[in-house]
């Protein structure tokens, strides 16, 4: 009876926790209802139910702790032993199958070798007879061609272009090597399918980087136009924007971005003095404010930054008791690119984000801002190196160059955020307005997609929030983001206004895949993991052209898409 009573108490005590993850008040998602997700009627509700979106491993740890506390250890051990036993049996069967297959292969190989030897002996006998006849003919006709040449031209075993019947006939080495290769292929087929590995160069490089084919005539002509325009005493910014809209060559991208963002003046004579003054001003902020990062009123900000940055390199993340918001986000920045795993790079990001946060108290630091530093940082590193940047060791740069890159990245990021700061103030009203506008726009340009998402109760805020918060940086490879920002810099209100039309074009780009999904879960998985890893300049250019078409049709006629 006591055992039965204990079981009842166990289920009664944990009824609120099973099934699903542990729920902390105000922090965790409610239990999922298939096909009928709960709607968030306000942004505050949406924020509260998604506040754990960045948590990693918390639920797993708590579930394991609960299991260890409540499960019978004998049952656990028995189950574990069965799993190990079944796995061992499967492995043994696999080894036996491989051994049998290998024996068959070796036997076939030996038979083929024997057959080939017999064939070669017969061919040699025939060739000897033919050689004697040919020699007599050559003597009679005075032919001076050597017997060796004649033999080579007539007796090649592959001269008749016949198909290779077995592995022993192909010039690939010994029968043992052939058998080993077969076994390797057999093992490879038994492994789960893995996507092809994309070289790091493909993640960040654009068409004009080193290691890629030489520039085409058109690209060289465009580069000359940029250089001529930038060489003048006063750069015509309107002309520079027109040239930059369709992409900026890597060689002139740093100076072009600084001019288009308003960081540098159009007058060439003033540029050097402005750069020196702004760089000194930034490091003055570092000297004045950075030591306060551990103060009580700045701890939470620095903690988030400190966590977001080191997750670029998960092994280096060590949480201290009082470490507090920027420190969390840095490691989350481009975790696949080795450049951002370097300690010196992470320290640069921490300083940039912390100084920006305390100089903008209306918004402070918000997760996602850490992503906006990376394009500037990469572009300005290219100003000092010729090779690819992915695996480049920034500590090999001179200290002055690193300081210049850091200061320039800070000021250009600040210029960008000045135009979209309402995206990051309390309740993020700028993002809410843009997501609502995106929904209205899509309902006009592709009603099928809009109705399909309504049918399965997919809210635009659930996927497009990240698109607006991170400017599509989580959806596109970094090389595509840099190309996208070439146009954003050239377009009036590119980051704040044109980005809306890019998001609409981006969503409709996947209409076929969206319409094929038949439930809420499938749609959300697709929209949060769109297959853009192989995208390059061509795909981004098509996306931008479609966005420009939408802007031309709707931007000056807002009532056009309001219902």
Short characterization:
Helices cover 60% and strands 0% of the residues. The chain has helices spanning 2-13, 43-49, 58-70, 73-141, 147-154, 175-190, 200-204, 217-231, 237-244, 253-260, 268-289, 299-308, 343-359, 369-381, 399-418, 429-445, 447-455, 460-469, 478-490, 494-508, 511-516, 520-528, 537-554; one strand at 328-329.
Question: Would you give an account of this structure?
Answer:
The chain is an all-alpha fold and 563 residues long. Helix 19 runs parallel beside helix 23. It starts with a helix and ends in a 9-residue tail after the last helix.
Q: What share of residues is helical?
A: 55-70%
* Number of continuous helical runs: 23
Low-confidence stretches: 6-37, 52-65, 67-71, 135-203, 205-212, 312-324
Mean of pLDDT: 73
Net shape = globular
Number of strands: 1
> What string, H for helix and E for strand, traces the elements in order?
HHHHHHHHHHHHEHHHHHHHHHHH
For the report, how would you describe the main beta sheet? none
Distance between the termini: 67 Å
Radius of gyration: 33 Å
Strand-pairing-aware structural class: mainly alpha
Fold blueprint:
Blueprint (H helix, E strand, L loop, with lengths): L1 H12 L29 H7 L8 H13 L2 H69 L5 H8 L20 H16 L9 H5 L12 H15 L5 H8 L8 H8 L7 H22 L9 H10 L19 E2 L13 H17 L9 H13 L17 H20 L10 H17 L1 H9 L4 H10 L8 H13 L3 H15 L2 H6 L3 H9 L8 H18 L9
Helix pairs in contact: 4-6, 9-19, 11-15, 12-13, 13-15, 14-15, 16-17, 16-18, 16-20, 19-20, 19-23, 20-23
Keywords, separated by commas or semicolons:
60% helix; 563 residues; mainly alpha
